[in-house]
């Protein structure tokens, strides 16, 4: 290998006007081109390079353009003999070379002025040794102009780039501020529009409103709910639907039903987002959480009887509106404490129409899939019977039992035993001992007449035969004191239940 490198160095040292680096890699110096291209391509580069443009002094023309010198810093000076001239400056050295047409280059340093005539042998650029010098290569004026044009072009691009960057640094913040103001103005307009109609949001707007969905309020089978804020400090709840097929189905059901109805006891859908696979619903925010939070969380305040009765009545009104006052009857299919939200005055709002279906007033449509949550679903779901609004009545009845007791219907009473409160309540109701069902945390502070009405209604609502269950409007009348409620029979399914 050393021998090969030595041979290559020897070859390149014989070729005039070649410029090489520290490796055996060479090209022609500026203003020169390959003399014998075919041999050069085959690796024989001894012929070297020749000028592209003859010097002015070599031509018999009246061209007034003078030859000049191209500066080559950090080079190993040519190996071929040079002439040393005694002059006191670089300009003087340049004048000496310019006065002789055969002079092709000069170098001036602390040792003096050196000029080269004929070919330049073994010229090395990017030379990093201590004896590196600056060589001034003589070229025709046109070659120097090309070099100057390249330098000017580079300088121009640098200047243009600097100007563009300066403009960007100056304008981008302003543009961002303008965009932010426009987005804020658009969000304010949408916040105002929410008062009267359903609003279409972009996904980025809801990302901004929820701070990239950072505060999660809850979740369910179809997605999660996040807290958000619109301009003017209007809080919202954003439901981010998950699952393309089911989410789309739920999205269409909720937008088509909730968006068209208004009732004090129904959660209000104020907007939506449908952007590709991203489906989101925007609701009014309920600061007091859900009925489940208020009833079952250990750190919550105990709801007094008056509030519980108002929640039961308001929920019944909301469901009655869905069942009987909408253009098409709406079956909720998933009534449970988690889906009854409470505002700051603890007014109930029926929420989460994720399982809702629109059916005709004859209620003849049979749904093919079981909906609802365990513990609240009506037996007809399991038995494959036609689904009517009475499935919501059944779920409402199960929820009434939890409003009565302040506890989940199924509770541990020992290491391996459970108590099913609807069974206990039905048995107590039959023997006329409803007082023993009162939540002990209420300390007996209840309206006994109202309490007995709620106990009877709960039992009527969970009858096995749906035709024996009251309608939601009848329940409202009973809770308002406008309809008498008789003693219900014990549901057969409860009578056959054996809980140990």
In short, what is this structure?
With 500 residues, the protein is of the alpha+beta class.
Describe the structure in your own words:
By secondary structure, the protein is α+β, with helices and mostly antiparallel strands. The protein folds into 3 domains: 2-139, Hepatocyte Growth Factor, CATH 3.50.4; 194-284, 2-Layer Sandwich (Phosphorylase Kinase, domain 1); 291-495, Transferase(Phosphotransferase), domain 1 (Orthogonal Bundle). The chain contains 14 helices and 22 strands. Strands 11-15-16-14-13-12 form a 6-stranded mixed beta sheet, with helices on both faces. The protein has a 5-stranded antiparallel beta sheet with strand order 5-10-7-8-6. The longest helix is centred in the middle third of the chain and has 53 residues, at 141-193. The chain is rod-shaped.
What's the structural blueprint in terms of helices and strands?
Elements: H1 2-14, E1 18-20, E2 26-28, E3 32-34, H2 37-41, E4 49-51, E5 68-75, E6 83-85, H3 90-98, E7 103-109, E8 112-117, E9 123-124, E10 133-139, H4 141-193, E11 199-200, H5 203-209, E12 216-220, E13 223-230, E14 234-241, H6 244-258, E15 269-275, E16 278-284, H7 291-296, H8 305-325, E17 330-331, E18 340-342, E19 348-350, E20 357-358, H9 379-383, H10 390-405, E21 410-412, E22 418-420, H11 421-430, H12 448-461, H13 472-479, H14 492-495
Parallel strand pairs: 1-9, 11-15
Antiparallel strand pairs: 1-2, 3-4, 5-10, 6-8, 7-8, 7-10, 12-13, 13-14, 14-16, 15-16, 17-20, 18-19, 21-22
Helix pairs in contact: 8-10, 8-13, 10-12, 11-12
């Amino acid at each position: 290998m050393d021998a090969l490198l030595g041979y290559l160095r020897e070859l390149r040292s014989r070729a005039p006007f070649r410029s090489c680096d520290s490796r055996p890699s060479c090209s022609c110096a500026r203003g020169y081109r390959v003399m014998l291209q075919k041999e050069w391509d085959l690796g024989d580069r001894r012929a070297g390079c020749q000028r592209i443009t003859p010097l002015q002094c070599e031509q018999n023309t009246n061209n007034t353009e003078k030859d000049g010198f191209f500066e080559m810093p950090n080079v190993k000076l040519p190996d071929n003999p040079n002439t040393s001239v005694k002059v006191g400056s670089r300009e003087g050295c340049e004048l000496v070379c310019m006065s002789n047409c055969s002079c092709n280059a000069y170098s001036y340093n602390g040792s003096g002025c050196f000029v080269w005539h004929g070919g330049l042998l073994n010229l090395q650029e990017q030379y990093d040794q201590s004896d590196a010098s600056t060589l001034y290569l003589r070229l025709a004026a046109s070659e120097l102009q090309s070099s100057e044009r390249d330098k000017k072009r580079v300088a121009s691009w640098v200047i243009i780039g600097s100007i563009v960057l300066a403009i960007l640094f100056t304008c981008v913040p302003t543009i961002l501020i303008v965009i932010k103001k426009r987005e804020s103005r658009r969000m304010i307009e949408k916040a105002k529009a929410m008062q009267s109609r359903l609003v279409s949001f972009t996904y980025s707007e809801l990302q901004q409103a929820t701070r990239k969905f950072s505060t999660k309020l809850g979740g369910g089978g179809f997605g999660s709910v996040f807290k958000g804020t619109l301009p003017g400090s209007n809080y919202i709840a954003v439901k981010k639907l998950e699952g393309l097929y089911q989410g789309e189905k739920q999205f269409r059901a909720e937008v088509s039903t909730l968006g068209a109805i208004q009732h004090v006891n129904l959660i209000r859908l104020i907007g939506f987002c449908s952007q590709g696979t991203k489906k989101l619903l925007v609701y009014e925010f309920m600061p007091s959480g859900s009925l489940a939070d208020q009833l079952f969380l250990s750190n919550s305040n105990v709801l007094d009887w008056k509030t519980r009765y108002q929640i039961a009545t308001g929920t019944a009104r909301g469901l009655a509106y869905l069942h009987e006052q909408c253009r098409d009857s709406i079956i909720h299919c998933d009534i449970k404490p988690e889906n009854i939200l409470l505002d700051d005055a603890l007014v109930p709002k029926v929420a989460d129409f994720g399982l809702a279906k629109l059916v005709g007033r004859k209620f003849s449509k049979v749904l093919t899939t079981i909906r609802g949550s365990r513990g609240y679903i009506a037996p007809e779901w399991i038995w494959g019977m036609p689904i009517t609004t009475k499935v919501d009545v059944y779920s409402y009845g199960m929820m009434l039992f939890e409003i009565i007791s302040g506890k989940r219907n199924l509770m541990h009473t020992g290491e391996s035993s459970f108590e099913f409160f609807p069974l206990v309540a039905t048995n107590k109701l039959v023997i006329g001992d409803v007082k023993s069902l009162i939540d002990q945390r209420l300390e007996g502070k209840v309206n006994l007449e109202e309490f007995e009405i709620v106990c009877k209604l709960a039992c009527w609502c969970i009858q096995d035969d749906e035709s024996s269950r009251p309608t939601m409007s009848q329940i409202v009348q009973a809770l308002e004191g406008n309809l008498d409620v008789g003693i219900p029979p014990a549901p057969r399914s409860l009578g056959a239940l054996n809980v140990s």
